[in-house]
Amino acid sequence: MLIFRGGTMEDGSPSQTALMVAVLRAHHCHLAPEPKILQDTTALPLSGMADLDAVKDYKNGVIEFFSGLSSRAVAESFVQQITDSVCMRSRLVEERLTEARTQGLEQLVILGAGLDSTAYRCAAQLDGVPVFEIDHPATQQWKKTRLTECNIDLPDNLQFVGFDFENQTLAEALEAGGVRSDAVTMFTWLGVQMYLTPATVQATLAVLGKFPSGSQLIMDFAMPDATHPDEELQDPVGELNRVVSEMGEPFESTYTEQQLEDCLKSAGFTDVSFYTAGRILDSYLEGNRDICSVPDEACFLLAATV
Questions:
Q1: How far is 39 from 232, CA to CA, in rounded Å?
Q2: Longest CA pairwise span in the chain (Å)
C-alpha cells in the first residue's frame, strides 16, 4: 500500500518525514504496551490520521518501504527501533526541560518544529515560559489548521515564527519573531540535521552558540559509521536514507560524535554530552530494557550547553 503523499513545505503540507514521525508517536502512545517511553496524545490529531486503524495501516506502509531488507521481520524490527528512537528523543527533551526549569530557563525555541507536540503535551510544564516554534510559514499554517480542527487550544505562551531560509537568516527570523537574544534558552532541533548541508548546520550552530551562558541545545543526528548488532542490518543509516530519499527528503550530512562536538565547540558551546539509548533508559526510564528496542550502544542524541 502506497501511503506517502508528495507534500512539501511550499504547498502547505508537512514534510513526509514529519508526518511519519507524528504517526509513529501516535502508534506508540495508543498501541504500545505499558509502560511507555512517551505519552503524546496530541500526536494522533496532529498527524491527520482518521483513527487508529489508519495509524496501523500507515505503519505497515512504512514497513513495506523497508522491503529492501532481508525479510519482513527485519523490516518490522527496524521500524520499531525508529519508533522508539523518535519517542526517546522527545522524552529526553521533556526530562531536560524539567531540569532547565530549575536552572533559570527563560524561553524554549523549537527549530524545524514540523508536527512537534512539545508546546501542547508539556503545556503545564512550560507555564510562564515563552515558546517559539520555528518553521516554514506554509507548514505552520497547515499545523494551526489541524490544531483548530481538533479543538486543541494554542497555549498563550506559544508563538509561531515563520522562517523562509531562502530569503532570511535564522538570526533575522529569531529577532523578528521576538526571540530574546539575551535570555537563557533551550533549543530543540530534532529530525533536522541530516537534511541540511554541513554549511547550514554550522551556520545554525553559530547563531545558537551566541546565546547567554546556560543556554542549551538538544538535537539528534545521523552518524556515517553507525552499526547494528543484527547481522542483517549492518548499515542502518544508509537504509534509512534510502527510504527518506524515496520520500523526496534525502540526507545531506552525517557526523561522527567527534566531528559534531568540534562543530559545537567552535560555535561557542562549552559542554557536549552524548546520549546512548542505554543512558536514556538508565537515567529516565528505570533501566527498563523491555520498553525499548533500540540497542543500548546506539548514540543518536546530544545535549550541548553554552
A1: 31
A2: 53
Sequence ranges of the domains in the chain = 87-305
Tens digits of residue pLDDT in 276-294: 999 999 999 999 999 999 9
With CA atoms as reference, report the closest residue to 123 among 240, 42, 215: 42
Measured distance CA(264)–CA(274) in Å, rounded? 12
| Rounded distance between C-alpha atoms, residue 72 and residue 59, angstroms | 13
Q: Where are the alpha helices (DSSP H) in the chain?
A: 16-31, 43-47, 52-65, 72-101, 118-121, 137-149, 170-176, 198-208, 236-246, 257-266, 277-284
What's the pTM?
0.92
Tell me if residue 31 falls in helix, strand or coil.
helix
pLDDT tens digits for 72-91?
888 888 899 999 999 999 99
Pair 305, 264: CB distance under 8 Å: no
Q: Strand pairing of 271-276 and 158-162?
A: unpaired
In degrees and rounded to multiples of 5, residue 105 shows phi and psi of -60, 135
185-189 β-sheet, strand order: 158-162, 131-135, 107-111, 185-189, 216-220, 299-305, 271-276
- Superfamily of domain 87-305 in the CATH hierarchy: Vaccinia Virus protein VP39 (3.40.50.150)
Could you count the other beta carbons within 10 Å of the beta carbon of residue 271?
12
* pLDDT at 11 > cutoff 60: no
DSSP at 141? H
Residue 271 to residue 283: CA distance in whole angstroms: 19
Name the one residue in this structure whose C-alpha cell is 503535551: 121
Terminal Cα-to-Cα distance of the chain (whole angstroms):
46
Q: What is the DSSP string of 247-274?
A: TT--------HHHHHHHHHHTT--EEEE
